[in-house]
Specification:
- With 171 residues, this protein is mainly β.
- 2% of the residues lie in helices and 36% in strands.
- The protein has 1 helix and 10 strands.
- The protein has one helix at 133-136; strands spanning 39-44, 52-58, 72-80, 83-84, 89-94, 105-109, 115-121, 125-131, 145-149, 155-162.
- Strands 3, 4, 7 and 10 form a 4-stranded mixed β-sheet that branches.
- Strand 1 (39-44) and strand 2 form a beta hairpin.
- The radius of gyration is 20 Å and the shape is elongated.
Length: 171
């Protein structure tokens, strides 16, 4: 705890605190810590919903209601020389890397037509879309494509993302 009674060690595990809380059928959950604290910063993930970070929740007393949004869908297609590229992992990462705001990254594979779809993407943020290098092999690389996701429940199209020649830097 710091001098204001807040937990230290943002962005990492805190000794004495379970790193995961599982909800009951009603969506309720509890967090417990071995020492007194005045507030919580938490990151919430739930299947079928967009990730969310919540800050400065007062501890003790009454519970809090935290509403999750469904999020948006981002679709696109990976191509090489105009042809679809199946079986490659595409990644999406939140562009805001501030530890209090970062919503993480996730991957999904392209289908037989090179298509991919990320679901439940948090709205009101910019995301980077890219091909995961280890799955592209010798076909090249993709430039990172920035996509602004404005509205919850909306569909966004990244269009065709083309593999381009890549280089290896050693030294």
């Amino acid at each position: 705890l710091d001098e204001q009674g807040r937990l230290g060690g943002r962005g990492g595990a805190v000794e004495g605190l379970d790193p995961v809380a599982i909800t009951g059928a009603d969506g309720g959950f509890s967090l417990a810590y071995q020492d007194p604290t005045t507030e919580w910063d938490i990151s919430i993930e739930a299947r079928g919903f967009a990730r969310r970070n919540v800050h400065k929740l007062a501890s003790g007393g009454e519970g809090h209601t935290i509403v999750l949004q469904r999020g948006s869908t981002l679709r696109g297609r990976l191509v090489h020389e105009g042809r679809p590229v199946p079986g490659v992992l595409m990644g999406i990462a939140h562009t805001n890397r501030d530890s209090a705001a970062f919503l993480g990254h996730t991957t999904i594979g392209t289908d037989e037509r090179g298509r991919f779809a990320f679901e439940n993407i948090s709205a009101g943020s910019e995301w980077h879309v890219y091909a995961v290098m280890s799955t592209v092999k010798d076909r090249g690389a993709t430039p990172v494509k920035a996509i602004r996701v404005e509205r919850d429940g909306a569909e966004y199209n990244a269009g065709d993302i083309a593999l381009e020649p890549a280089f290896t830097l050693r030294g």
